[in-house]
Amino acid sequence: MKCPFCNHNEDKVIDSRETQEAVSIRRRRECLNCGKRFTTYEYVEKIPLMVVKKDSRRESFNRQKILNGLRRACQKRPISMEKLDGLVSEVESEIQKKFDQEIESGHIGELVMDKLFRLDDIAYVRFASVYRRFKDVNQFMRELRDILNKKMK
């Protein structure tokens, strides 16, 4: 680490500790040339995950978009915001473990629907009808039949 006072390249670490949020490490250093002390912070570098949309556009992953869609699907359902936030956190965690830089939006939608299916049938159908863009009642009925078949197993 270069000393901010004399530009010397050698120092020693006097103290290290995590910040309150535990997102970085604060290091107190002393220059071996001039003896002055300075503080540095060390962060984990996050590579932004890009979402590849159906029309091939790319945009940064945004958990708020998922949460907004879930809120609409769960309107007037007995599902707490805490559960919805937990569902989004699960999705985000799985995505970060499986994908390095890019993920297709379809993978995200299917993952959300899978988790929502286990949480609430009605919210699942609402979300699926928007996500899959049901064009007619027959598509809607097929989805309902699939739900009933999964429930019977």
On the 0 to 100 scale, the average pLDDT is 89
Kindly, what is the distance between the CA atoms of the first and last residues, rounded to a whole number of angstroms? 61 Å
Shape annotation: elongated
Which percent range fits the helix content? 40-55%
Number of domains: 2
Count of helical regions: 5
Sheet-strand content, in percent, reads: 15-25%
DSSP E strands, number = 6
Order of helices and strands: EEEEEHHEHHH
Provide the low-confidence segments as ranges: none
Order of strands, main sheet, comes to 1-2-3
**Rg result:** 24 Å
* Structure class: alpha+beta
Task: Give structural attributes.
single chain; 153 residues; alpha+beta; 2 domains; 3-stranded antiparallel sheet; 3-stranded mixed sheet; 46% helix; elongated
What would you note in describing this structure?
With 153 residues, the protein is of the alpha+beta class. It has two domains: 11-43; 50-152. It is 46% helix and 21% strand. The chain is built from five helices and six strands; from the N terminus they run E-E-E-E-E-H-H-E-H-H-H. The protein has helices at 63-73, 81-98, 105-119, 121-131, 137-152; strands at 11-18, 24-31, 37-43, 50-52, 58-60, 102-104. The strands form two sheets. Strands 1-2-3 form a three-stranded antiparallel beta sheet, with no helix packed on it. Helix 1 (63-73) packs across helix 2 (81-98) and helix 4 runs antiparallel to helix 5. The model has no long low-confidence stretch (mean pLDDT 89).
